[in-house]
Every structure is written in C-alpha cells, then in structure tokens.
Design goal:
318 residues; alpha/beta; eight-stranded parallel beta barrel; 15 helices
Amino acid sequence: MNILEQLKLQTKVVADSGDFESMKTFKPFDATTNPSLIYAATQNPKYTYLIDDAIVFAKKQSTSKKIQLTVALDKLFVSFGIEILKFIPGRVSTEVDARFSFDTDGTVTKARKLISLYNDAGITQERILVKIATTWEGIKAASILKREGIHCNMTLLFSLPQAVACAEAELKLVSPFVGRVREWYLKNVGDDQNSPVNDRGVMLVNNIYNYYKKFDYETEIMAASFRNVGEIIELAGCDLMTISPKYLAELEHMDEKLEQKLLVENAKESAFERINLDEKLFRWMMNEDAMATEKLAEGIRKFTEDLMALESNIIKSL
C-alpha cells in the first residue's frame, strides 16, 4: 500500500478543498471548505453555474441588493457543500462568515441559516459541520448550537487553551492549524524546524491529542493547514487530518511503511495536568501566547478578505 492508503487505516482523511471534482480521485471520508477555498474554486469557470444559481435563488428571496448578497453567499457556500457530499461518505464543513467571529448571537443565527439551506436540499445536519473561529464568543455559539443538534468544527485553532475550552464545552471537533503555527515561529523566532519532529505545529497537535486522550475527552481532533507531507506523516494516528489535493497526490506516490505516531496508550502516560479554564483564564492565556493571538486575528482577517472579494464578484451580477 502507498502512504495515503496506510494513512486511511490510522486516520480519517479529509479533503481540504472547494474543488469537489478532486474528491473523485482521492476518495476522502470527509471534506472541509472555507471562504478562501471557495473563492479560489469560483475562479474556475467550471463552477460558474453555482454562482449563477445562487444569484437566481437570492433574487427570488428579496428585492434588496443587500439581502440578495447575503442570501447568495449563503446559498453558494451550501451549494459547494452539497456537491461535495455527492462524492464523500461522511461530513462536509461549511464556514460561518468570519465577520461574526466575536458575535455569539450573529454566529448562531448564521449557522442556523446554513443548516436550514442544507435541510431544504434534503441534507440532514448529521452530515454537516459548521465551521466557527475559536474565539471565546465562537465557543459559546458552538455550545448553543450543540444543544440544538448542530455540530461544529472549531477552526483557526492555534493553542492548547483554545482546544481545552472546546473540549470542556463538549464540542464535536477542533482543527489545529499546523502549518500556520510553523510559519509564525520561523518568522518570529527563527526556530530550526527542518525536521517534522521539531515542527511547532506538529508539537501543538501532539499536545492536544495527548491532553484529550489522557482525560478522555470525546472532542475530535482534525489536524489542518499542512505545509509539507512530513508534517502529515509525523501526525499519523490523529483522529482526522484535512489535506489539500496537492499533498494527497504526494502521499499517493510514496510507498514506504507508515508508522503510527499518535497512540492513546502513550497519551495516557503523558505528564499533563488538567487545566481548569474559565473565560478570564482563557483570555489571559491567549494574551500570553503571541503566536496564537496573532494567527487567530490574521486568519479572521484573511477569511474576511477573501469573502469580500467573493462578494465583489457577486455584486456585479445582482
């Protein structure tokens, strides 16, 4: 077996792409999208019909251009998700507008709308993960949604305190961003991270995995945002990994034996002590972690930037 086939025996492989045609090739279990991936996909003419359909749908809902734009964006994100679900057996993650990252009520309302659009298309919410930025407000919103049977994928996660807060809230899934952590340390600290073992992003996922498994949290860990296949190989055994088509193709052409690196029995022996986290401690620990604070803010800005670029394209057709 090649490494991708071996990895699928140890970890649920998730496609990190808005290009649902790639799902046919790599046959992932789940798939994730975000505003940046959707924006990139819409630059491909073969997906123009989804934008056109979203605009037609939005115009039927309202005569207000502002409302039409909001409806069209929601419809477009859900339409990509619906198409992706045709090629995978599991779940698709669809992201809430990043501009609601510090608005609990706004996040809840938007998530309910996305789920409603999926339901209208005959998709049950068991196949949907709503992606929400891992701010304190985002965690509170996900807690409310959980009580309604809506499961969330907590994204833009860069620190153990974020992961602990999600686990304490019994949320469905967290997505620590491996590559973005690595990039921050390379830029700001100059760490020698030539080996994946020393990769700060890999170390973060290891810590989250060991903490969760030691204390029997059920929240799933989906490592994300990879920058090389070495990071993926070093995290074999993680609950899930969301991987871009580029790295899926690389793994498919590698034939060596894959060793499982993350093991529950090792996690049980780790030295972690339980963190008693409330809002004050969460905010203080985030404040003390420059990398997590900066990358969270940067990620929210980047998703917003790509969302606004997508909006500008849609506005032209309204």
